[in-house]
Design brief:
single chain, binds iron/sulfur cluster, five-stranded antiparallel beta sheet
């Protein structure tokens, strides 16, 4: 019989002792650990659990998290294991522990898996017996030197490839424990970081990928994404939230930042002369986006100047720290605090953390956002700078080989300004290409085995990691997305941009609810076997076309998915009102039953 406590037993004991500690502290008694009630942190050995938790010193930034947890404990509630683990040790202070794991070539166990994610290191067993490292780069922008460096890290310490994520970010996979800290230090040596890219932290700050070069944008979001990024990096209380948290800045350019799918979305608007506030460009504040729970961020009625955005975001996060659920992970996202409080109360609480009142202004008095151009993230497009173009390169579901990474940075260096812009559509832009060099860039992209054709199925294909690298996935989303592309591209000629999103589980990293066609992974019973398959959703959208896709089919084995998609696209092209009717509009004017009937009566070649 094992003499070690199970994870559940440890958490029970930790919760018990923690409650006793809180009660003792309230009565002014010394801590059971011997630490002074208001004093220094308990000493921690590597791997020790620190049963009562580690109370931060008075005035320490992270104290507000500890106090928030105390309120649940004082109400007789039990912290969830993840909260207890964060209470036991601040994950930001475990460098030696990470190094020890690297020296011992040891993988983390139990809640350490969560704590390692504070450093951007995801132990992804059983999908892969190795780590994935997720970086962060504000607005998804990096330079050619950094791309070259990432290729080197991928070659030396990881699997020799990288993936662009749906937060305009990069991930490296197949990192062995021995290289844990090698990767972390190498990433910092090229001016990047992975700190806080996973676990209960504010994820990569996104913005418009065309910021600063966009012909129609109202404001360049790059400075804001950077300010927010560095604010987080330099404020320890911005880590260890009740749950993960997303922030995006949309500058009203041709490519959306998908800000309405974030917990906090800032969306640029223009106000004309003659209103109650000076004319100019402001940001609308939206709150509570979480499309995996079928909810978009809602407009709060608040208007901000660009200088106010970062302090307001920090204040909003502090309210979340104080009030987010620490006992139930399923109810811990911002949306649930908003559901409990309502927008007005949440804003009132936010104002308590600000030296100014939030400005209210009707959305109807703002000018409409200039329209996004669907699939402007693919192909060659004129910049606001005369004579310069950006190239949107299709990456197969976000994947780049070493040769492609090096080729991309070389093209950016030789033909552009060395700037590479990742997008939430899992592809990238190379900016600042002189018009006369476009053909050369096209040739070089082709030579890398990549493409810039906006009419292709691949241009709108997005897939989460899938079961090749994520234990939650019911299906091989990335592999099957490529099979779908291979199948459809020989059979359907698209003349309108269509987005197809494949996501492996309800966490919805690939946001299947906002795709024209969304696929959610499922295990499907076929005879006596369970095979990989999908539930299918139609007609989702974002921004001005904001809509949660409707479920049309459940439990479709993957083998049947490609021909079913061919029928859908063929029926759309055959029955749409006119050649410019979008797929979303086409599906919206039919009931689910009508759509099914149309698809079933559509014939396709064997
Ligand atoms: Fe993993 Fe689910 Fe996210 Fe896909 S959606 S990467 S399966 S957590």
């Amino acid at each position: 019989m094992s003499t070690e406590f199970t994870e559940e037993q440890k958490n029970y004991l930790q919760g018990l002792v923690s409650g006793v500690e809180t009660a003792r502290a309230a009565r002014g008694l010394a801590s059971l650990s011997g630490a002074p009630v208001n004093g220094a942190r308990m000493p921690q050995s590597a791997g020790s659990s620190g049963a009562a938790g580690t109370e931060p010193s008075p005035g320490a930034p992270e104290l507000i998290h500890y106090q928030a947890q105390n309120r649940f404990i004082a109400e007789g509630k039990k912290l969830c294991p993840e909260e207890q683990a964060k209470r036991n040790r601040n994950p930001l202070d475990m460098w030696d522990y990470l190094q020890q794991h690297a020296r011992d070539e040891r993988n983390p166990k139990g809640t350490d898996v969560l704590l390692f994610k504070f450093h951007g290191m995801f132990y992804v067993a059983p999908a892969q017996d190795s780590f994935m490292c997720r970086l962060r780069m504000p607005g998804g922008i990096l330079n050619s030197f950094q791309m070259r460096g990432i290729a080197e890290i991928a070659e030396r310490y990881a699997g020799g490839y990288a993936h662009v994520t749906t937060r305009a970010n990069l991930q490296l996979r197949e990192i062995k424990a021995e290289n844990l800290t090698n990767v972390l230090t190498s990433v910092q040596e090229i001016g990047l970081t992975s700190r806080g890219s996973g676990a209960d932290n504010i994820r990569n700050i996104t913005g418009c990928p065309t910021a600063g070069i966009d012909p129609q944008e109202l404001i360049d979001t790059r400075p804001l994404a950077k300010q927010m990024h560095y604010y987080i990096l330099n404020h320890r209380e911005m880590y260890g939230l009740p749950r993960k948290f997303n922030i995006a800045f949309d500058g009203a350019g041709v490519i959306s930042a998908l800000e309405d799918t974030n917990d906090i979305g800032f969306s640029a608007v223009r106000v004309a002369e003659g209103k109650d506030i000076p004319a100019g460009v402001y940001f609308r504040l939206q709150l509570g986006g979480i499309t995996g729970h079928q909810d978009f961020a809602r407009d709060t009625g608040v208007m901000l100047t660009s200088e106010e955005c970062v302090p307001v975001a920090a204040a909003l996060v502090r309210v979340f720290i104080d009030n987010g659920d620490r006992t139930d992970r399923k109810k811990a996202r911002l949306k649930y605090v908003l559901d409990r409080f309502g927008i007005e109360k949440y804003l009132e609480e936010t104002e308590k953390h600000l030296p100014f009142k939030l400005r209210r202004f009707p959305l109807a008095d703002c000018e409409p956002r200039p329209a996004v151009i669907k699939h402007a993230h693919i192909g060659f497009h004129a910049q606001r700078q005369p004579g310069l173009f950006y190239a949107g390169v299709v990456l197969p579901v976000g994947k780049m080989t070493l040769e492609q990474m090096r080729g991309i940075e070389d093209i950016a260096e030789r033909y552009g300004s060395g700037t590479i812009r990742l997008t939430v559509w899992q592809n990238l832009l190379i900016s600042d290409i002189p018009e006369e060099r476009i053909q050369s860039v096209k040739d070089e992209i082709k030579a890398l085995g990549l493409d810039w054709n906006a009419a292709s199925v691949r241009a709108g294909l997005i897939a989460c990691t899938g079961n090749g690298g994520c234990k939650f996935s019911a299906s091989d989303t990335k592999g099957q997305a490529m099979q779908i592309a291979d199948y459809l591209e020989t059979r359907v000629q698209l003349d309108q941009p269509i987005n197809i999103h494949l996501t492996g589980c309800p966490n919805s990293c690939a946001q299947h609810y906002v795709g024209d066609i969304g696929l959610l992974g499922a295990k499907v019973e076929v005879g006596e076997e369970m095979v990989e398959g999908y539930h299918l959703y139609l007609g989702g959208g974002y921004g001005a076309s904001q809509k949660i896709g409707r479920e049309i089919y459940r439990d479709v084995p993957f083998a049947q998915v490609p021909p079913l998609l061919e029928k859908m696209l063929t029926a759309y092209q055959g029955y749409r009102l006119n050649p410019v009717e979008s797929f979303q509009d086409f599906t919206a004017r039919h009931s689910i039953e009508q759509l099914k009937a149309l698809f079933e009566q559509t014939t396709i070649a064997a």
